[in-house]
Amino acid sequence: MTSLGNKIVFITGATSGIGKSCAYAFAKEGAHLIISARRISLINEIAEGIRKTYNVKVHAFELDVRNKNKVLSAVNSLPEEWKPIDILINNAGLAKGLNKFYEDDPENWDEMIDTNVKGLLYVTHAILPGMIERKSGHIINIGSIAGHEAYPKGAVYCATKHAVDAITRSLRMDTVDKNIKVSTIDPGLVETNFSRIRFGGDDEKAKNVYKGLTPLTGDDVADAVIYCASRPAHMNVSEITLLASRQANATVVHRE
Ligand code: NDP
Ligand code: 8X3
User: Fold this and answer.
1) Among the residues of 54-154, which ranges form H helices?
2) pLDDT of the residue at 65
3) Can you tell me which atom of ligand 2 is nearest the CA of 158?
4) Which ligand lies nearest to the CA atom of residue 154 in the structure?
5) Domain 8-242 belongs to what topology?
6) So what's the pLDDT on residue 88?
7) Taking the CA of residue 1 as centre, how many other CA atoms within 13 Å lie in the half-sphere pointing to its CB?
8) Using CA atoms, how far apart are residues 192 and 215, in angstroms rounded to an integer?
9) pLDDT in tens, 69-89
10) Taking a C-beta distance cutoff of 8 angstroms, is the pair 147, 90 a contact?
11) Domain spans of the chain, in order of start
12) CB 3.0–4.6 Å: which of 15, 47, 222, 246 could bond 37 by disulfide?
């Protein structure tokens, strides 16, 4: 097992759900954190909470992964001590709407593609050259079972997660000679803010997604991310798929 103590871990979308759970889980292992998201007051609050609980350093800043120039300048202007990033968790992402393709709003498509695909590419593009130079690094993408299967009313969200899957696999080939690991963690139903965002703040609709079963939590996913990040140097976990035990796949769910 590789110790995560004193590693530098960069997490996008750390204000909520899986990203926030990952921040706490890595801090518990003694890693120092670079955490970012769009909500600056929330990310600062989380940073303060982590500093109070664990003896680790936390660098927090506002970042919208859709902004290519800001992503690059934020990474390039990191203080020297924060530059040698060991692990990147590409987590920032969202679904907007659950509609038949022909009834959907193309604005939703732009937001999902810009965040889930282009945002992940921009952040990776900004951080990977340093990893290549140092001949060391691990990129862990938060994909989804929506990257393995398509489901009704999810054409574009599923397309973005299929893209994450393809990017993960290609990147692993492109960096195989650079001592860089590339992995993906692909969960099914995880109860976070995800469905609230998907349904434009409609709490009732969001709750119904998880009705009649016990969904995964952000902490369950963070647990898998920690497993993946802490394997010995010779071992890469290329992919982990996680499902709630009452979920068979993206469309078959048993509810009581
Ligand atoms: P949450 O809504 O709880 O968290 C999403 C996080 O992403 C927030 O911290 C949000 O922060 C951040 N974010 C959204 N847009 C941007 C942006 N443009 N730039 C930077 N940060 C952004 O959802 P989850 O924790 O569930 O989602 C995290 C990831 O997990 C996503 O990639 C999602 O697709 C994936 N996933 C989720 C599943 C689920 O069932 N919940 C299952 C499978 C995968 P802020 O608003 O402050 O910017
Ligand atoms: C998020 C979960 O069920 O929409 O990726 O695929 S789901």
Assistant:
1) 68-76, 106-112, 120-134
2) 98
3) 6
4) 2
5) Rossmann fold (3.40.50)
6) 99
7) 8
8) 10
9) 999 999 999 999 999 999 999
10) no
11) 8-242
12) 15
